[in-house]
Give the backbone structure.
Amino acid sequence: MTALPEVLPIVPFTTPPGGEVVLPGSKSLTNRALLLAALGSEPVTLTGALFSEDTELMAEALRRLGCTVDADAAALTLRVSGQANLFRTEEPVDIFVGLAGTAARFLTAFCAAAPRGVYRIDGIEQMRHRPMTNLINALRELGAEVRCTGEEGFFPLEIHAHGLRGGDIEIDASASSQLLSALLMVAPQAQGPVSIQLTGSVRWTYVEMTRHLMAEFGAQIPPAQDDRFTIDSIAYTPPSTYAIEPDASAASYWHMLNHMEKGSMTFPHLRAPGDGLQGDAAFVEVLQQVGSHPSGTPFEYNFREISDTFLTLAAIAPLLDGPTRITGIAHTRAQETDRVAGMATELRRLGQEVIEDEDTLTITPQPLKTDQVIETYGDHRFAMSFGVLGSHDLRGDGSSWLSIHHPEVCAKTFPHFFELLDTVRTKFSAK
């Protein structure tokens, strides 16, 4: 992968893009599948896997815990084996999760469910501020010994493992569905049945992704009844090979580019809404509504269930004919950064009229300011969303008018995003 400059000028498209664009595998599915494969006893090969910072952190953590994870980046395969060697070391194990929310929450539950050992988990400074309290408390209710060695309820953690006993617990997973997904995946390993009562709202698309993936790895649990899951002890029996779907969240940028530049790009193996495990596939329906919306009138959409894609729409809202009102996004204030405040700041930098509430952004288009540098806040989705906006030929002469600060943050989930953007642009500009 070509090294990126600290500040990357985006070169606009001057010709509608087309052809096949191969998207990376889903981060959400890759990290879930890695954990579920480790919970089994036989080798599992993941095909079409994502190779990025988040998945590499997950794979390396499993290696440190004793599992074998063989990676072939060229073939996009990850092979998990040697599960019998997990949790064997007598020495404390240090695990680094960076800013990877999936790795952080899933590995915390995984280590808490271990039969023995001491596990110290930490991430970068931003990770130390992301919500963990409700997962920690739920694991403690199941008998886990989880110590917060810094501020209570946050990383760093030290886990003294002796398995989970089972029982009835409650959890509020409104801050992140990953808190509930982590519990669901390890609950079949508990010594007795686990009953999980939800006490707050949750993003069901990701919970159902977890539940359906668990079933494909041999641990079928019934849907929630009255916001309660009941999970018996079950042995995972994963398939020998599992194909990871292309990332629907990453696809949102390319769908938007198609929409914005009247392109005809296609995406091999990408699932349609309702056809795969990823709720973010529904972003294509958002664009259909945008396209059919009466010109000049406000457009409103609740992104709660597909909030990873709200930045994709917000970033190009300045190009729409009327105001855009984005709701259901309060929980994104506690993700890689405060995404609501960050998006409001960057849109104002571009001269837009923005009203920011706790759960809402309302964007009224104004003439775009040019020669601006977008801050990314260490967040990959800012880089990619505004990379799409910068691909619009605002001046009409193909000249760059927007730059991205620290574009390398895309390494978290889509390391070659800007390289691919340049390849597609160059291919069609040459025609």
